[in-house]
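ERR on first pass: missing label on line 2. Operator R.T. fixed the label and resubmitted. Corrected input:
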Amino acid sequence: MTALLEIDGLTKAYPGVVANDTVSFAIQPGEVHALLGENGAGKSTLVKMIYGLVRPDSGRMGLNGADFTPENPSAARRAGVAMVFQHFSLFEALTVAENVALGMEDPPRMRDLAARIREVSETYGLPLDPARLVGDLSAGERQRVEIIRCLLQDPKLLIMDEPTSVLTPQEVEILFHTLRKLSAEGTAILYISHKLEEIRTLCDEATILRLGKVVGTCTPREVSAAEMAEMMVGRALTPPSRASAEPGPALLEVRNLSLPPRSAFGTPLRDIGFTVHAGEVLGIGGVAGNGQDELLAALSGEVPAPKGAIAFDGTDIGTVAPDARRAMGLLTAPEERLGHAAAPDMSLVENALLTARRRKTLDRKGFIDWGATRGYAEQVIAAFDVRTPGPEAPARALSGGNLQKFVMGREIDQGPRVLAVNQPTWGVDAAAAAAIRQAVLDLAAGGSAVIVISQDLEELLEISDRFAALNEGRLSPPRKAQGLTMQEIGLMLGGAHDMHDVEEGAHAEA
Amino acid sequence: MLRLEKRPAPSQAWGIGAPILAVVLTMIAGGLMFAILSLPDAGLAAAREAGEIGFGEYVFGHIPVMIARGAEAIRTIFWDPLFHERFGPFLRGQLLVKAGPLILIAIGLSLGFRAGIWNIGAEGQYIIGAICGAGFGLAFYPSESILIFPGMIVAGAIGGWLWSMIPAILKIGFRTNEILVSLLLVYVAESILALAATGFLKNPEGRGFPGSRNLARHPGTDNPELIAGTGIHMGVVAALIAVIAAYVVLNRHMFGYQVKLTGQAPRAARFHGVDPNKLVIACMGISGALAGLAGLFEVSGPAGQISIDFNVGYGFTAIIVAFLGRLHPVGILLAGLLMALTYVGGELAQTRMSLPASAIQAFQGMLLFFLLALDLFTNYRIRGRRREVAA
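pass 2 clean. output:
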């Protein structure tokens, strides 16, 4: 049997880094092939070359036995390669059919197109109404638009870049069903992910990249997730350890917190309530865009909350300014690192001052003590293994993962009484993510209360004492994380609004 | 094909080089403009009239004439004020007289500009500061108490501050655009100035001429030269203090940090805890108060009195000064001196070469134009588009 796609000695170097170093592997027709690796391992560069976005420096690719070097994505599409990106390129103000038409070389009449979209969506079990506005769709539905756009081209190879990061477990099930069906029909799928369990359930073969090189191949069903992780990282990982302790007194109480959306496509917060105690980690799961940013902004003090909605250690802090909240011991770390948690053009020293001014007393009557500030920046850099040319480097010069380590370290090293973080390990490599999780657990073990907002459900189950789901601005009542199944979590994520009455009852108990 | 490519980090060389290159390009383009203004040359026209030279000779004869005229204009503006044997000593003092208000206003504006708060109406705040300060002094006329001048300083600063609070409060309360409001208030201030000069501040002993009493010639309300012949008065000293204070605030103080943070990353500033409304009040207030101070020092010193044409555009030129100086205190100090040179030299060129005053303003405008155009290269570079195989 000849391979569908053959990659032989592909190399691509950027100034200062070899993104791909003589990468070779092959994909058979109908195979679901996983491309596995940490951030920065070279997965994106590799698929960009296959999809015609980047030209390789050397090496060759073959498709169906013929030489294949696409000049651009449209050449790749003509050859039968389609790709679903992690970030969607859809217009919110247009309908599904209009969005699909925009991506086509010569679109058919709208009515015919709508009929074909319906047909494909039924065939592959991807429910989607062509007449709906994309702005009204959930992330999972938007992904379906992208997938259907690809399927209309009858691809032989479908590339999917981190497709499940925005999906609920139930949506993941639907997606996998579709992908299996496609594979059975002979379409090969190149599946990029770092979620090992998913790869074990879905993929036939896996190629593992580390630092631009192929470091191994395996049949995912036959090896354990731990073995794959080890190949990916290059050493054994220790799962975070924790001492279980009785939760202490309530440190942060949120009651009936409702806030209007801040922009046209923002999410309102609806009647949110929860309590976190000293020594416990509360995990808040949910697909991005369901109120995570808004909830964190209300906790940090960027957006004032109604009177009585947020109490810190018994004191109402709804209208207390961010810096005063930090002085009290409530620290936060927003999701977006560049531009929100850190100023891109400012040095790490200046960025240390951003939140540590009060608790580390980095100023005297408003006059900045640059020596002490620099000292604190260096302390964070050392404690969290931040790779940087030095504390004077601007934040934007750091890789996303390293900046995340700096931001998390900046908050954790201040010894907060309550820490609220949004996506603490987003874009961070596995070893660093483990270190951050351990630091969060140590913080809780030391008597602090921690709120972790994340899309990574495995992460949340690993570190949380209690778990709650955020959906369309509503928070489900927190439940004990131990023993929760993915099934139950999926229900919490998909239908938190139906549980609203239950939530009220839960407050009365708490 | 050329295209612009964003630099990974702003170029330091361009940051310093752009203002220098802008000055050079302004000299060239300005020289050309002054040369064209002298057309047609009277001597050549007369010779043509008399039939001494042909048409071709008449046209090409202009080339050396234009080069000479342009070079003369540039020399008159940039060289003579400093080094002319006869006028130099006097004009060097004038340089500081002009640079003082420019620097004082530009320092105030630079804080707001760094935070993305655009006070374009410093000219109006300058006028109102002068009127309030002069009004305070004249209210006690003919007292010569030493307390009057300090009172005038405070009144001038408060006047400018109040005038700048109008756009600030409208921005906070009604989301109006501070650029438009502060700019339009300049024209309101000019009308009030005319009213003051012909009405409520008019000199009762002025035989019906518009204009107030002369503050500079009355002990107690005057702002004299501190060292005779140097042009240094209290306003120049205040400008220097402002430069030093701004330097310290921007580099050492939380307020300067918050100003820079807000300009560079507004969301990070919110996260840090900057209240955007308070920052608008603070930045507009500081720039307004400094512009008001500049107006007070001017009316009690070099100008001497409130008159209809008291303001000469310092408030607008200070915007150029602020950007020419990269919004940096030391840069503003140098840029203020340079702009003062174009003022003094421009006046010299007006009288000695009979160039129109508007040509000098156009010249100053060119400087800002070239600077902003060249600024592009601080953050971008030009790349030739690589030829790619047509898809």
